[in-house]
Amino acid sequence: MSHEIIIAPSILASDFSRLGDEIKAVDQAGADWIHLDVMDGHFVPNLTFGPPIIKALRNTTDKIFDAHLMVSNPDVLLADYAAAGANYVTVHAEACDHLDRTLSHIRELGCKAGVALNPHTPAAVIQHVMDRLDLVLVMTVNPGFGGQVFIPAMVEKIATINDMIDGRDIIIEVDGGITAETAGAVVRAGAQVLVAGSAIFKGDNQASYSGNIARIRDAVR
Ligand SMILES: O=C(CO)[C@@H](O)[C@H](O)COP(=O)(O)O
Ligand SMILES: [Fe+2]
């Protein structure tokens, strides 16, 4: 299993009037994946976009599309996310009554299956689905908004999940408040995919997405 660090800019922090150009810009700036925050105004108190926009953006880059579904009933549109070109489809454990069924369905659609955990959700809820998982997304802020402050207590949870993985081919993603300052601790605990919105699109050097991505990469090298 490769432990190369994957940087996934969250386009939630980008200029929504120029989404396609923003994706091309971070692609050229060294992004590994593109993180797509889908919010339904119910599971989280914010609204973003869904399959039609993801489909429209699919032709702007060949990079992995990492769809983070912050929605109450993800099952109804799973096929649409797959058809839109999402490579990873991650659902929230808190939103799924039948998590194992939902994850199996995502894989049947040809996508990689992910589970996201809110900060207050214990790692143990994924114990029974470890055999049908490709990715665990540890939320390091409460979902719904970009630009929040990293919750340090999540580092221990990442380490717990890393132990639970126990050699399986499952990667740990972290999302929320990830910067060059917080990246080291999460990577040491076992995180491999670093989602960053504000630190890349609204970082110290807004003119240089490549500089902002490089700062995070250098911090964990
Ligand atoms: O899922 C979410 C928020 O709910 C994230 O993907 C944010 O977009 C991360 O933004 P920053 O904390 O990096 O600004
Ligand atoms: Fe996200």
From TrEMBL:
Residues at which a divalent metal cation binds: H35, D37, H68, D175
Co-factor requirement: Co(2+); a divalent metal cation; Zn(2+); Fe(2+)
Cofactor: how and how many bound: Binds 1 divalent metal cation per subunit.
Positions that bind substrate: S10, H68, G144, F145, G146, G147, D175, G176, G177, G197, S198
EC annotation from Swiss-Prot or TrEMBL: 5.1.3.1
Statement: the UniProt record of this protein carries the keyword Isomerase: yes
Family recorded in the similarity comment: Belongs to the ribulose-phosphate 3-epimerase family.
UniProt cross-references to PANTHER family, sorted A to Z: RIBULOSE-5-PHOSPHATE-3-EPIMERASE (PTHR11749)
Protein role: Catalyzes the reversible epimerization of D-ribulose 5-phosphate to D-xylulose 5-phosphate.
Protein name: Ribulose-phosphate 3-epimerase
Originating organism: Puniceispirillum marinum (strain IMCC1322)
Lineage, uppermost ranks: Bacteria, Pseudomonadati, Pseudomonadota, Alphaproteobacteria, Candidatus Puniceispirillales
